[in-house]
Amino acid sequence: MCQLEVLAQTVNTQAQTLSRSWHEGKDHALSSCDVRRTTIPPLDSAGEEARNQLLTAIRTLEQLVLGPKDTFQSYYFKTAEAGVIQALCQLQVPSHVPLYGAISYSDLSKQVGVSEDRLKHLVRIAAVCSNFLAETEDGQVKHSDNSLIWQLDPLTATGMEVMLDHLPLSSFKLGEVCAQDPKDEKQDVCGFSLAREQPLYAYLESHPKEGRNFAAHMRAQAVQYGDSSVQGCYDWTTLKGKTLVDCGGSFGSVATAIVRKEPTIKCIVQDLPKVVDSAIKATAQDPDFPHDSISFQAQSFLEPQPVLADVYLFRMVFHNWSDAGARRIIQALLPALRPGSRVICVEYVMPPIGTAPSYAELATRRLDNMMYTLMKGKVRELNEFKELFESVEPDLVFTSFKPGQLRATHDPRCHSMMEWVYKPSSTPTDGEAVSDREALTNGEAPTNGEAPTNGEAPTNGEAPTNGEAPTNGVALTNGDALTNGDALTNGEAFTNGEAFTNGDAFTNGEALSNGETLSNGEILSNGEALLNGEALSNEEALSNGETLSNGGEILSNEEALTNKEVLTNKEVLSNGEAVSNGEAVSNGEAVSNGEAVSNEEALSHGETLSNGEALPKV
């Protein structure tokens, strides 16, 4: 039996199975004007599989019968046919054709403002080539199965119009995209932005009507299967009493589905300010919205995450972004992660080539193409997701995967679930620095991988315990984070050996104000100086920046005594006073050889003496 006969037999067999599935569901025919249906009827599992196999066989059979040349020609014919449908939609022709009955070309021409002759050509092209609109026996225009959606589901129809307006034009810019950004490093260089001279969302914002239509279409898609899909993709009962942040959560439909499944979860829905404003207004009027469980917050997932939550949910986010953009999203989470924090992604996951039924791979690769064309997005394989997270934060450990359904067409039942848990690989001991990914937030920091609290710091190389901070005199102040083993002064962080003074960075031994010190012989405030890293105080050289008490005893960790009281955090005496043998020198007087200079000998503006020589103000 030749391939043509095999395919024909497959079509016949699968069509019979599909027909039985519809018959058992009391649906005896395909969508038609008689039943006014815009989607196929519900199917059992056998019917679903038969439909998938039938679509694959029909496509293969068509290409086999056409041959390579005619198959290739069909690509640009279909593109041109899509242009005809786009023109009819732009003219609002489907909206003027009545749901029941028909309308004459003459009347339709007057309503849409196009000549009767041109209108007739457009309608007939769409009807014959795409089964979009139709004619009655007496030559009037009526709806076909495919055009009914403009009357029965205008919300979905307007979303489709947005795609018809932009996707074909944008797709022909892909060659330019690859030439301008061959490594996919520029998120805004995509087919849409080159075609419209703006990224998609910027364009929709500057064209409010299209923006509203697009947003409504996306919400409608999410709602169609969204609740059951989200509720079934994860065991939400394991998060009893937890806090979940829905990143990019729009109007909160996903969060609503989650709290209806597990009411004790507290959800924070984050999105851009305009979206949040609209969401708050919309949900305020909804008596069924779970206001006690869901709140809204204006927050971009490209900015550092401010909320310390148990779970961070990204539903249908990452496929909008290139790898470079996706890494920014993950990076923005790091300041909020604590041991045990979970990151859940609900996404389309691309099956590796050749490993899934062709209908499922075809549908997903079509989506991959559309996302790259419109937004520089990407539909990733599971291993690509793992590598993406690993490249940003190795301590985000991949823990579970629940694949979505393999289907020939897209809906939320195709979404897969992936989960990562933050498991720090080590905690700082014996002077080890707190790493960037263990940065402190809201005064909390690591103890066995958690952050030190209350800004407490151990000294002399003691290990951090019970919320205390890292060692060797490197202290945390006000719960701020240490990075790369550097120290904090007055709550300001030193990074890569640079010192901050009032938030300004000084590098390579430049002078600091406010009592901070410099190495290699540079000037210290309070009349002290360093020589080759040793502090001179009372004419005695101290190593490691140590100072002397009244009795000449060495004080560690740069602490100073005045009247036997320890000044911490490199504090100095008020009003520019200095310490000489533990006594305060007032009113900006200077110290020379450890002795106070009287008022007559005082240097102006708080200048100090070193061995009798005036040093400039620091």
UniProtKB/TrEMBL annotation:
Organism: Cladophialophora chaetospira
GO BP, one annotated term: methylation
Domain of life from the UniProt record: Eukaryota
GO molecular function: O-methyltransferase activity
Name this protein carries in UniProt: O-methyltransferase C-terminal domain-containing protein
Family stated for the protein in its record: Belongs to the class I-like SAM-binding methyltransferase superfamily. Cation-independent O-methyltransferase family.
Entry keyword set: Methyltransferase, S-adenosyl-L-methionine, Transferase
Region of interest (Disordered), residue spans: 442-495, 574-618
Pfam families in alphabetical order: Methyltransf_2
InterPro entries named among the record's database cross-references: COMT-like, COMT_C, SAM-dependent_MTases_sf
Domain O-methyltransferase C-terminal as annotated: residue spans: 186-390
